[in-house]
């Protein structure tokens, strides 16, 4: 279950002031329009409220490394593996670098449009069409 919204400094101060005035947790929650459990958890230990450490695996690239990777990719003709090598990011895989690039707003990947292979018949049809329209081109 996700964490709830933590109280603002103003709400924390109000909750403590109302509690010192002798109001109940239910009354404080009604005045501040915040859940009773949020108020009670805050009043149990006000110093520790909103200080829990982040969970999960840390990111593989720091923001500086991400910027460096994207800067290398902006160079003309750069591919992800070359940008990765030039940035010195040998500790991540090509797929991880690709995921970071895909997540960035600076680049948009488009799938190439598929076209069928040229056959002798398609070449002949193309050449007939060129001759019929009076166009002279070279393949």
From TrEMBL:
Gene Ontology CC terms: nucleus
Pfam families referenced in this protein's UniProt entry, alphabetically: HTH_Tnp_Tc3_1
InterPro entries: Homeodomain-like_sf (IPR009057), Tc3_transposase_DNA-bd_dom (IPR025898)
Transmembrane segments: none
Residue intervals of the Tc3 transposase DNA binding domain: 3-50
Superkingdom of this protein's organism: Eukaryota
Molecular function via GO: DNA binding
Cell compartment(s), UniProt: Nucleus
Protein name: Tc3 transposase DNA binding domain-containing protein
Lineage: Eukaryota, Metazoa, Ecdysozoa, Arthropoda, Chelicerata
